[in-house]
Amino acid sequence: MSDEREYRHRRIGDKVLRPETLMMGYGYDPHLSEGAVKCPIFQTSTFVFKRAEDGKAFFELAYGLREREPREVPGLIYSRINNPDLEILEDRLAIWDGADAALVFSSGMSAISTALLTFLRPGDAIVHSEPVYGGTEYLLLNILPQFGIRRYGFTAGVPGAMESAVEEARAEGPISVVLIETPANPTNALVDIQACRRLVDSVGQDQARRPVLAVDNTFLGPLWQRPLEHGADLILYSLTKYVGGHSDVIAGAVLGGKENMEQVAGMRTILGTMADPWTGWLLMRSLETLKLRMTSQMKNARYVAEFLLDHPKVRKVRYLGFLDDDDPDREIYQRQCLSPGGTFSFEVDGGEAEAFRLLNALKIAKLAVSLGGTETLAQHPASMTHSDVKPEHQKAIGITPAMIRISVGVEHPEDIIADLEQALEQV
Ligand SMILES: *Cc1c(COP(=O)(O)O)cnc(C)c1O
User: Fold this and answer.
1) What digits encode the pLDDT tens for the residues 321-337?
2) Alpha carbon of residue 363 to chain centroid
């Protein structure tokens, strides 16, 4: 991207423009593309160099063979390394979280696995919160140990659990990564990012390199939680969820500071886990309405949560906006989160049979896993997204047979409530 494009539209005078404004044009110069208002889809595998000297210079920068000269423009080479649809998207994504850089991947899982393979080596430990997303859990429990990586989990929301896991891990060797998912899915238990950073700093004092603190920000980010401001080094996303937002694309991202991101970029180039230009284009389109959608989903979720809270057939609502004064998560929530978001879980009076009756009776909300799309989705964690978590462990982390997770969409909130009301009659 040219410097001219890089600095385009970021401020007017000394007024810094807000992310939702920048999503419409930042990083794209129409005059480089026949005046097209929208960035075209650069459906190309490779790019023509004007001169052999340019090709040489582009490779030197892409492979880190020398430092970039002031005002030197890294050129386009090959779509596994870079492509305008991904670069512009990445520049826009980085704005929301205040990151130096972003990289987009073919899925949330390819983002997470590429980031972890960048920083973990045989003998290293990863300490992580629990529960984590099912795919992440499989990677941590079943795949990484085959490469000699030690794994230590701690339950989100249990006082002292994180500290004990770190103690246990560092007694056996270096810790390279601490990975947390907050709020946890589906319980909405919180992990304190600042406390985690203090712990990581203390570990860093007696090993060669401080562990990298990575936060999966899929549930509240980038609107309602900004992990870099609380001390995180890397942010991981499944863009499939709120950022993509229409349940029609699979993608992921990693964001962070320059040094770490250069390493992740190198790994992505070799593993080939980047997204394709068409996905990049779809996500740029999604980013234009990100704030509108997430704001509407957040407001709708509050109406729905309040309706459920008062309903006689609902036992418990695990919504971040309803934390009690004496709940230790409340202080973390107030410091770390900017809204309760649009996804939460609740328990019906009864067990699996009652939960299934409700799910089967829904007319507007769709019975499907995933979350963050424009449409309301509901599912049963115990038998669906978290079915590979053993029943004792499900109980320990707060997943019950009566639990339903709902991702509230942008429909009219009274319609969503009417749907739940008639479905609850079946319970
Ligand atoms: C969905 C999800 C993932 C995995 O993302 P994919 O895009 O499905 O690969 C990772 N983390 C969280 C929190 C998720 O919800």
Assistant:
1) 999 999 999 999 999 99
2) 29
